[in-house]
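Quick start: what a row looks like.
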Amino acid sequence: MALSALFTGSTGLRANSSTLDTVGNNLANINTTGYKGQRLVFKDLVYQTLNPGSAPAGGLGGTNPTQSGFGVGVGSVDNLFQQGAVTPTGRSLDAALQGTGFFVMSNGQATAYSRAGSFSVDAAGYLVDPNTGFRVQRTGPTGEGSATAPGFQVPGVTDIQVPFGAGVAGVSTTTAQVQGNLGAGLLVGQSVTAGIQVYDAQSTPRALTVTFTKTAPNTFDVTATVSGGTATVQPDATTGTTVTFGSDGLLAGPGSLAVRLSGIPGITAPQDVTLDFGTVGQATGLTQFGGASTAALTTQDGAGAGVLTAVSFDTSGIVQGQFSNGRTIALAQLAIAGFNNESGLLRQGNNYFSASASSGQALVGVAGTGGRGTVQGSALEGSNVDIAVEFSRLIIAQRGFQVNARTMTAANETLQELANVIR
C-alpha cells in the first residue's frame, strides 16, 4: 500500500512556505522607496495516468481518463509594477516616476534600473544614488552647451554633472518695462524721473535714469542718462524722442523708444535698451490720467554673473539649474528606460533591477515619450505593497500550510493503522 499523500502534502508545505516567504518580504519592504511587490503563483505537478479513457464504440459510451496527481509546486514569482503613491518631500534632489519606466544608473561597468529617485551630489559633482555610488545617467544633448547657454556636460559622457558653485555669465539688458502714470496736471516744463538698474555687455550693473519732460499738452520729451557712460534716446520715425497721449489719457504713441548706451569703458559696441511703454490705446503701460505721477521703470531682462545654487526636475526629466543671478538653465535630461516586459526584470537588491533575456533590452529615452512616465520633482514613490492584500495572502498561505500538514498527519495515521493490523 503506497500512500503518496505524504509526498503530496510535503509539496504543499513547501509551496505555501514559499508564499509565506514572499508575503514576508513584501511586508518587510512596506516602507522601501520605489519597492515593487511580488506574488507567488502555484502550478500542479506531474500526474500518473491510471486509465487513459476511451472513445465511444458500438453500443458503449466513452470513458473518462483516470489520473492521480502528485502535488503542487511554485509556478512563478511575479513582479508587480503597479504605481506606488507619490509623496512630496520638499527635497530638490528627489524625483519620482509617474507611470512606467526606470531611472538609469551606472557604476562604469554595470547598468542598473531603479524606481527609487533619492539622489545626491557627490564630492566630484556627479548626481548619484548615495546608497551605492552609482551615477545617474542622462540622454540627449541637453546641457552640452549652445550659442545661448553654457555647457555643463561632457559630450559622449552620460554621467550627470551638477557643478554647484559653477559660474555663469550675465545677460545684457535689452528691454525695460515702463509703467505708471504721468499726471495730467503737470505744467509744461515739469518732469518725472524713473530709474532702474540695467546690465551692460560685461554684466556690470549700471543705473539707467529716464526723464519725461512735458513740452506741450499730451506730449512728453524723453531723455536718459546712464552711470559710467552716455545714454541717447533714439528718435522714432514719427514722433522723434517724444511720447504722446490722447485726450482720454491713453498712450497714443509710440509703443516704445530705444536708448543707446555708449562710452562705457572696455565696451566698444553700443548697447540698445528698448523702453516698452505698453500697448497703444490701452492702459497696460504708461498713461496720462489725473492724479499723482507714478511712472516707473518696473522690470528689465538683464542679469549679472551668477553661480549655480540649486537644481530641480521638470516633468520631462530636465535637470533645471537655478543660478544666483535669477537665471534658470537646463543642465541635463534624465535618461528613462522602458522595457517590453517589465515582469522579466531581475532584482539585484538596493532597489535595482537588471535586464534579462525575458525583459528584453532597455528602451532608453525621454520621460513622457514612447510610453514612458513623467518625472515628479521633489517627491518620492513609495512601495506599492497593499497591507490588506498581503494579510489576506498571509492567512490563505497559513491555512494552506495547515491543511497540507493535516494531509500528512492523516496519511501517517493510516500507515500506523496498517502497521497495527499485524498485532
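That is the whole record. Residues 89 and 286 are 44 Å apart (CA to CA). The chain has a mean pLDDT of 92.
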